[in-house]
Write a structure and sequence with these properties.
Length: about 130
């Protein structure tokens, strides 16, 4: 039988609570991203059900899908490609949100080693996502 993890006396926060919150965060993030992508794919298929795909010619996505400000406008107007792109962004943001949640949880627990590790992982994630090639 596993011993019960210690509870932080000041906040009532324990390891099981932290695991439950992070698990729920991952579930909600993946479910939301999947729902948004499914909605975009459904709209795309309804509008383009008879379109013929020519795979011999590469057609890049429009520049407007690469700008978050314009992406928001297109999502509001129900653009299928923008919804799919938003779903991908939500899927990528889910593990970043988990690392931020872990960082805050370790701060609350005052576990400075894991605060430093979480901060390092967050910096690496943000650098790899935001760096311009």
């Amino acid at each position: 039988m596993r011993p019960t993890p210690p509870i932080d006396e000041e906040s009532g926060f324990d390891d099981r609570g932290m695991e439950a919150i992070m698990g729920r965060l991952l579930q909600v993030g993946v479910t939301l991203a999947s729902a948004v992508m499914l909605m975009g794919a459904t709209i795309y298929l309804v509008k383009n059900h008879s379109a013929f795909a020519d795979y011999r010619v590469f057609v890049s996505e429009p520049e407007t899908l690469r700008d978050p400000g314009r992406l928001r406008e297109q999502v509001v107007h129900g653009d299928a490609a923008a919804l799919i792109q938003l779903g991908v962004l939500l899927l990528v943001a889910t593990p970043v949100a988990r690392v931020i949640c872990a960082f805050v949880a370790f701060l609350v627990e005052r576990d400075w080693l894991y605060v430093a590790i979480s901060l390092l992982v967050l910096c690496v994630l943000l650098y790899s996502l935001l760096r311009v090639s």
